[in-house]
UniProtKB/TrEMBL annotation:
It comes from the Eukaryota. Gene3D superfamilies: P-loop containing nucleotide triphosphate hydrolases. InterPro entries: P-loop_NTPase, Small_GTP-bd, Small_GTPase. It is a lipid-anchor. It comes from Spirodela intermedia. This is Uncharacterized protein.
Length: 174
């Protein structure tokens, strides 16, 4: 993370099972768009987005996967140097929640100890298909030192909030 005056530049990575909505969350945040049939391998995506906060500006360098999570392994290089990580699961898939916990464990073992970590229960619009209780996600996040939000890239619920919360933490951590 680099800083000058009140300007912070921070690498942010997204982790989580394939299909949980990582790319969709980024595209919602960066472009305000959502696609029902998001291409799963959009390429090794990299986005930059700057937030203006009371605390100063935060420029996120956002790293999205190119689908390597399909093999349940991402090179530690992917999250090396990251100031923030968003671990995403799909509230309609218990399997994706189990996978998310594995990513959290891996980050705790191998990631930067000062990393701001958020657990995002995405697809919150799919309430009728819910398999992971809000309380379950929240408790796990609390017990493991993560922020927690339920989001929807489709309706935009909590998407800006997610990135602003991270930005605020990073700006204050200075
Ligand atoms: P990724 O593999 O984690 O990057 O997931 P994608 O962003 O490619 O999304 C996988 C699929 O889930 C796509 O068909 C998206 O349209 C859909 N999707 C992503 N986010 C949401 C959401 O919040 N709600 C709903 N209903 N569908 C979503
Ligand atoms: Mg993707």
């Amino acid at each position: 993370m680099a800083r000058s005056e009140n300007n912070v530049q921070a690498k942010l990575v997204l982790l989580g099972d394939m299909g949980t909505g990582k790319t969709s969350l980024v595209l919602r945040f960066v472009k305000g768009q959502f696609h029902d049939h998001q291409e799963s391998t959009i390429g090794a995506a990299f986005f930059s987005q700057t937030l203006s906060l009371n605390e100063g500006t935060v420029k996120f360098d956002i790293w999205d996967t190119a689908g390597q999570e399909r093999y349940h392994s991402l090179a530690p290089m992917y999250y090396r140097g990251a100031a923030a990580a968003v671990v995403v699961y799909d509230i309609s898939s218990m399997e994706s929640f189990v996978r998310a916990k594995k990513w959290v464990e891996e980050l705790h073992l191998q990631g930067n100890p000062a990393m701001v970590m958020v657990l995002a229960g995405n697809k919150a619009d799919l309430e009728p298909k819910r398999r992971v209780d809000t309380e379950e996600g929240k408790l796990y996040a609390e017990d493991n030192g993560l922020l927690f939000l339920e989001t929807s890239a489709k309706t935009a619920q909590n998407v800006n909030e997610l990135f602003y919360e991270i930005g605020k933490r990073l700006a204050r951590a200075q």
